[in-house]
Amino acid sequence: EAGVAQSPRYKIIEKRQSVAFWCNPISGHATLYWYQQILGQGPKLLIQFQNNGVVDDSQLPKDRFSAERLKGVDSTLKIQPAKLEDSAVYLCASRSPTDTQYFGPGTRLTVL
Amino acid sequence: GQQLNQSPQSMFIQEGEDVSMNCTSSSIFNTWLWYKQDPGEGPVLLIALYKAGELTSNGRLTAQFGITRKDSFLNISASIPSDVGIYFCAANSGTYKYIFGTGTRLKVLA
Question: Left if phi > 0, otherwise alpha if psi is -120 to 50, otherwise beta: which for B59?
């Protein structure tokens, strides 16, 4: 079975620019997560979707971050405008019906 | 709030040695997951545990779901250089939201 797909794998932008990340979860997984992982730390949940609805976005900096999952399948995460402290790896994950979470390879964002 | 205390933070071991790491919490969980993350990659699932007391193996890896549902451990037997990486525990209390440990950085000396 195909895993969680993410693109791009790497992105370098200047501060105040915009960036978008894409994720396609494992087929049939209703729950999708976006995490931010700062170097040396564990993943931090940004937003959780159940189908196309938001379950938890309490830690999403909504003044600059937005995410959508319009058709309940793939999802995009956007940052506008980016700040230096947004440099991190952005991980997408999906949850199986047996309560197991699978991660994609991540997008490494560098903000200059 | 809920948090997972993962230890040790880091360890250096000789190739061939056995490794043990654990995660503890004051909260009760329904699911424990163990991941390995290599530099520049996403976490890869190693073992999933769903029942208190469950002991599950995956090759040289063995993990157990603590009877109290508040802890879990991961053992690696006969370590090899490719075991190098960061190991994370994650747990879910049934809300579909996973809590992560702070990671154990493993370095294997050949």
Answer: left
